[in-house]
Design brief:
17 helices; 488 residues; alpha/beta; single chain
């Protein structure tokens, strides 16, 4: 009771100090303002979004605030995710006997080839024989593939995966505890504002670190100063590395859960789903693409090697088309990763915008079929826009030639696209909508149209540098849709 009474009394005193200093107008920054030896409390809630890095400012200025080199030791947990991934991959190996998953096919590969030869002999037309030759070549290529299977029985693999999952859970808790201890440790002698900061913590004004803040800190390391404003740059780097390690362990824990589910539900002699999950390895550096790791954590998935190869190829070769079978994550994984990569490039440009010869901001346009655009927009909105960390803005342009176009609506369109390019968003459109806008502009060039002001407003659309990403490119770029580019 005495402790509770003391807390209530302290909160009342702090609120009184806040009101007093607010009335005299001493609070000059959002968050907290400190003078030497005296704490000046903020006039609003002490939330991370309103508490920028280094907001604890005194009479000596922001540059005079000394930094504290916090201790963070996760050497025992560092690199454990990669080690466990390699050990999990070692649970699989080349299959000893080739077996077909379809029981209606012949077990012998030679039997299938013999049937193809019989069909080829019966063919009378060259077109049919050429198709059979293609099937025969495809069958030979499939036989040369090295199929993977479990090295040990199901029960042994399942027991090992359960042990790995328990180990990963322990590492997760250890890393989280180390980060929280690093954030919560604020010695009184580390800074002349430390005593005032402890007063803010006693009044529950300083925010508490949550797992979501680790995701934010992996993208922007200065985010951790919202919880410990005295941290040095080296401390922020160590905290970001710890956050990345924690996120990799989260992805690995979810992956082990999927593996155990597949092993429990397997009924065939060849557990394809479990083997595929066991052989997933990370082919990219999380430190270079932290947004992809955030996407994996929030969606509880892991980018597969074949998906990563497609993503790297599209990034490395901008004017290229990649093909992937249905259901392998073109729209669900590859496309969001490309959008996040473009946003990362935009952030790098913003940091260089004060330097000369900087490229203009690029408008990312996502083209979908009209039958799929609504479903794709809903998914991207759920995974990218509704994300508490990524927060990628999506824009729609549902234009139709039947709608009367006025100068205010045209200016609104241009303003929305400008906001999309500046706000690191993406424009979701269909081929019909983009063609309707193009044809409407062509109509304004006719002699009987005298609306030059509207035409001048629409000319601003040509000033946007853009990057086009096509889903179902073979259908969108078909000649009958009139959406044909100069390079094919």
């Amino acid at each position: 009771d005495g402790a509770a009474t003391a807390d209530i009394a302290l909160s009342a005193v702090l609120c009184s100090v806040r009101t007093l200093w607010s009335e005299v107008g001493v609070v000059v920054v959002t968050g907290a303002c400190f003078t030497t030896g005296t704490a000046v409390l903020p006039t609003n809630n002490f939330a991370p979004a309103r508490y920028p890095a280094g907001a604890m400012v005194g009479r000596r200025g922001l540059d005079a605030v000394p930094r504290y080199d916090a201790k963070l030791d996760i050497s025992k947990q560092q690199g454990q995710a990669k080690r466990i991934e390699k050990e999990i991959e070692a649970l699989t190996g080349p299959c000893q006997q080739q077996m077909s998953t379809n029981r209606s096919w012949p077990r012998s590969q030679n039997g299938l080839l013999d049937k193809l030869q019989v069909v080829k002999t019966a063919m009378k037309h060259s077109l049919g024989k050429r198709k059979v030759d293609e099937l025969e070549s495809s069958c030979n290529d499939f036989n040369q593939l090295i199929r993977q299977s479990l090295r040990d029985p199901f029960k042994v693999v399942k027991r090992k995966c359960k042990g790995y999952k328990a180990e990963v859970t322990q590492y997760l808790r250890a890393v989280m505890k180390a980060v929280q201890d690093c954030i919560n440790t604020v010695p009184l002698d580390c800074n002349w504002h430390a005593r005032g900061f402890h007063m803010l913590k006693a009044a529950s004004i300083v925010p508490t670190l949550t797992p979501r803040d680790l995701l934010r800190g992996s993208l922007d390391k200065t985010w951790f100063r919202a919880f410990h404003p005295f941290l040095s740059t080296d401390s922020l780097d160590r905290l970001r590395d710890a956050a990345l390690e924690w996120m990799q362990l989260c992805v690995l824990e979810d992956r082990l859960g999927r593996i155990l589910t597949y092993l429990h539900e397997v009924t065939d002699d060849q557990p394809d789903l479990a083997v595929r999950e066991l052989r997933i390895t990370r082919k990219w550096q999380p430190r270079d693409h932290a947004a992809w790791l955030v996407f994996e954590v929030e969606q509880r998935l892991q980018i597969r090697p074949e998906q990563m190869s497609i993503i790297e190829r599209l990034i490395r070769e901008p004017n290229s088309v990649a093909q992937l079978n249905m259901g392998l994550g073109k729209t669900r994984v590859i496309l969001p990763c490309l959008v996040l990569h473009r946003n990362w490039q935009q952030q790098q440009l913003q940091r260089l915008q004060s330097q000369p010869q900087v490229q203009p901001r690029v408008l990312v346009r996502l083209f979908f079929l009209s039958q799929l655009i609504d479903e794709a927009y809903d998914y991207l909105h759920t995974t990218l826009t509704a994300s508490t960390v990524l927060q990628v803005k999506l824009f729609r342009l549902p234009f139709h030639r039947a709608v009367k176009l006025t100068i205010p609506t045209a200016r609104a369109m241009v303003s929305a696209l400008r906001c999309c390019s500046r706000g690191q968003g993406a424009l979701v459109v269909s081929r019909e909508q983009m063609l309707s806008l193009y044809l409407r502009r062509q109509e304004l060039l006719l002699p009987d149209n005298n609306d030059n002001r509207l035409l001048q407003v629409l000319k601003a659309l040509d000033g946007f540098a853009h990057v086009d990403i096509f889903d179902e490119a073979d259908e969108l770029l078909h000649y009958r849709n009139q959406l044909v580019y100069a390079e094919g």
